[in-house]
Design goal:
Elements: H1 2-68
Protein backbone atom coordinates (compact mmCIF):
# COMPACT_ATOMS: atom_id res chain seq x y z
CA UNK A 1 0.00 0.00 0.00
CA UNK A 2 2.98 2.30 0.54
CA UNK A 3 4.25 2.09 -3.04
CA UNK A 4 0.96 3.02 -4.73
CA UNK A 5 0.54 6.01 -2.39
CA UNK A 6 4.13 7.10 -3.04
CA UNK A 7 3.62 6.77 -6.78
CA UNK A 8 0.42 8.81 -6.55
CA UNK A 9 2.15 11.52 -4.49
CA UNK A 10 5.04 11.70 -6.97
CA UNK A 11 2.62 11.90 -9.89
CA UNK A 12 0.75 14.73 -8.21
CA UNK A 13 4.02 16.58 -7.53
CA UNK A 14 5.08 16.09 -11.14
CA UNK A 15 1.80 17.47 -12.45
CA UNK A 16 2.04 20.42 -10.05
CA UNK A 17 5.57 21.22 -11.27
CA UNK A 18 4.41 21.02 -14.89
CA UNK A 19 1.47 23.32 -14.12
CA UNK A 20 3.74 25.92 -12.51
CA UNK A 21 6.16 25.76 -15.43
CA UNK A 22 3.35 26.08 -17.97
CA UNK A 23 2.05 29.20 -16.20
CA UNK A 24 5.55 30.70 -16.30
CA UNK A 25 5.94 29.85 -19.99
CA UNK A 26 2.53 31.38 -20.72
CA UNK A 27 3.52 34.61 -18.95
CA UNK A 28 6.82 34.81 -20.86
CA UNK A 29 5.08 34.19 -24.18
CA UNK A 30 2.61 37.00 -23.48
CA UNK A 31 5.51 39.33 -22.62
CA UNK A 32 7.33 38.35 -25.81
CA UNK A 33 4.17 38.90 -27.85
CA UNK A 34 3.86 42.41 -26.39
CA UNK A 35 7.48 43.16 -27.27
CA UNK A 36 7.03 41.86 -30.82
CA UNK A 37 3.89 43.97 -31.22
CA UNK A 38 5.66 47.09 -29.97
CA UNK A 39 8.64 46.42 -32.24
CA UNK A 40 6.31 45.98 -35.19
CA UNK A 41 4.64 49.30 -34.44
CA UNK A 42 8.04 51.01 -34.18
CA UNK A 43 9.22 49.50 -37.47
CA UNK A 44 6.02 50.60 -39.20
CA UNK A 45 6.34 54.10 -37.78
CA UNK A 46 10.01 54.28 -38.87
CA UNK A 47 9.13 53.07 -42.39
CA UNK A 48 6.42 55.74 -42.65
CA UNK A 49 8.85 58.41 -41.43
CA UNK A 50 11.44 57.25 -43.96
CA UNK A 51 8.87 57.33 -46.74
CA UNK A 52 7.78 60.84 -45.80
CA UNK A 53 11.40 62.00 -45.63
CA UNK A 54 12.28 60.50 -49.02
CA UNK A 55 9.56 62.35 -50.96
CA UNK A 56 11.12 65.83 -50.67
CA UNK A 57 14.58 64.39 -51.28
CA UNK A 58 13.38 62.67 -54.45
CA UNK A 59 11.81 65.85 -55.78
CA UNK A 60 14.99 67.75 -54.92
CA UNK A 61 17.10 65.23 -56.85
CA UNK A 62 14.71 65.44 -59.82
CA UNK A 63 15.00 69.23 -59.80
CA UNK A 64 18.79 69.02 -59.77
CA UNK A 65 18.74 66.58 -62.69
CA UNK A 66 16.48 68.91 -64.68
CA UNK A 67 18.82 71.82 -64.01
CA UNK A 68 21.81 69.87 -65.24
CA UNK A 69 19.90 68.33 -68.14
CA UNK A 70 20.75 64.76 -67.24
CA UNK A 71 18.26 61.95 -67.49
CA UNK A 72 17.91 59.29 -64.84
CA UNK A 73 19.94 56.14 -65.48
CA UNK A 74 17.83 53.08 -66.33
CA UNK A 75 18.74 50.06 -64.24
Amino acid sequence: MLWPMLALALAFCGIAVLAVLSVRVHAEVRGLARQVSESSRRITRAAEDLERASVPLGSHVDALRRERGTAPHPE
